[in-house]
Design brief:
The chain has helices spanning about 1-25, 35-60, 70-105, 110-140, 145-150, 155-180, 185-215, 220-250, 285-324. It is mainly α. α3 (about 70-105) runs parallel beside α6. It has 9 helices and no strands. It is globular. The termini are far apart. About 75% of the residues lie in helices and about 0% in strands.
C-alpha cells in the first residue's frame, strides 16, 4: 500500500508539472522600450532622408530636360550604396568602441559624446537645409536656365556626401546610445528583440511618409510637402544639436515640463517626433533655436524665390526685346 501511495503521489506531481509547463508561456527575451525608441527614432529619420532623395531623383524624369532611365537608376543606386557603406562604417566603429570600452571596463565620457553628437547634428542640419532649398529646382518648379539654378544640379559627389553623412550619423547615434546597454548584461540581452521592434516601427512610419510623397502627383504640392518635411527635420536637427552641446556646457533653465509617459520624448509615440524638434521639457536655448532656425530657412526660401522671379523677369524682357 505504501508503494502504491508513493507512485500515486509521484504521478500527481508529474501530471501537475506537465500541465504547468504546457500552460506557462516560454520566457520571452528581455525587452526595453528605451532601446526600441532609439532604433525607431533614428530609423525614421534615415527613412525620411533616403525617401526624399529617392523622390527627387525619380522626379528628374518629369522635367523639361528629363533624365534617361539609366541615369536615374545610377543615381538611385548611389543612394543605396552610400547608405550601405556609411551604415557599415558606423557599425564597425561603434562595435570596436564598445568592445574596447567593455574590455577596459570603462565608459564613454558623457560630455565628449554630447559634443560629438551635437556637432554631427549641426552638420546634418545644414545638409538637410540645403536639400530643402534645392528641392524646388530639382523638381523643375524653378527654371534652370540661369547661372544660379545651373549651379544646383544634382551631382554624384553631393549625393554621396549628403546621404553617407546622414546615414553614418544615424547608425552611429544608435550605437552610441546603445553603448551603456552593451556594458550591462541585462541591457545587452534586450537589444535584439527591442531593436527589431524599433526597426519595424521606424520603417513603418518612414514608409507612410514616403507613400504620401508618392501619392502627390502635382509637382507643386509635392514640392511643398518635401520642402516642409526636410525643413522641419533640419529645424529638429539644429535644435537637437545645440541642445546636445548645451548639455555638455551646462543647460539653460527649463521653460516647462510636461509630465506623463505619453508626452515623454523618450517613450512612444512622442519619441518619433523628437527628430523634428519635439521635447516635453524644452530649455530656454531650445525655444530660441527652434524658431530662429525656422525663420532663417523661411528667409532663405523667400530670398531665393525673389532672385528666381527677378532673373526670370529679366530673361523674359530680353526675349521680348530680341523678338522686336
Amino acid at each position: 500500500r505504501c508503494c502504491c501511495c508513493c507512485c500515486w503521489v509521484s504521478c500527481r506531481v508529474l501530471i501537475f508539472e506537465t500541465v504547468f509547463f504546457l500552460l506557462t508561456p516560454p520566457a520571452m527575451p528581455a525587452f526595453l522600450v528605451e532601446i526600441s525608441v532609439i532604433f525607431a527614432r533614428e530609423i525614421l529619420e534615415a527613412c525620411v532622408i533616403i525617401g526624399n532623395y529617392r523622390k527627387v531623383v525619380k522626379a528628374q524624369k518629369d522635367k523639361e530636360d528629363p533624365w534617361e532611365d539609366d541615369q536615374v537608376n545610377k543615381f538611385l543606386k548611389i543612394i543605396w550604396l552610400a547608405a550601405a557603406a556609411a551604415a557599415t562604417v558606423a557599425a564597425v566603429m561603434i562595435t570596436a568602441l564598445g568592445i574596447g570600452l567593455n574590455a577596459a571596463g570603462g565608459e564613454l565620457d558623457d560630455k565628449v559624446a554630447d559634443i560629438i553628437e551635437g556637432v554631427s547634428k549641426l552638420v546634418a542640419a545644414v545638409c538637410i537645409a540645403q536639400l530643402s532649398l534645392k528641392v524646388p529646382t530639382w523638381l523643375g518648379i524653378y527654371p534652370k536656365k540661369n547661372k544660379i539654378m545651373l549651379s544646383e544640379e544634382i551631382t554624384r559627389r553631393d549625393l554621396w556626401f549628403n546621404v553617407a553623412w546622414n546615414i553614418w550619423r544615424e547608425v552611429a547615434e544608435i550605437g552610441a546610445f546603445l553603448i551603456p546597454f552593451f556594458l550591462n548584461d541585462e541591457g545587452a540581452e534586450a537589444i535584439p528583440l527591442s531593436g527589431i521592434v524599433g526597426l519595424l516601427v521606424g520603417l513603418f512610419c518612414g514608409a507612410l511618409i514616403y507613400a504620401v510623397s508618392m501619392i502627390l502627383k502635382d509637382k507643386r504640392r509635392l514640392c511643398i510637402f518635401l520642402v516642409v518635411i526636410t525643413g522641419w527635420l533640419s529645424m529638429g536637427l539644429f535644435t537637437g544639436g545645440c541642445h546636445e552641446i548645451e548639455e555638455a556646457a551646462g543647460e539653460t533653465p527649463y521653460a516647462w515640463k510636461i509630465k506623463g509617459d505619453f508626452w515623454s520624448k523618450k517613450e512612444f509615440p512622442m519619441a518619433l517626433f523628437k527628430p523634428f524638434g519635439y521635447t516635453n521639457s524644452p530649455t530656454i536655448l531650445w525655444l530660441v533655436c527652434l524658431p530662429v532656425w525656422a525663420i532663417i530657412l523661411a528667409a532663405l526660401h523667400i530670398i531665393k524665390y525673389q532672385k528666381v522671379k527677378k532673373i526670370s523677369g529679366k530673361e523674359a524682357a530680353e526675349t521680348d526685346t530680341a523678338k522686336v
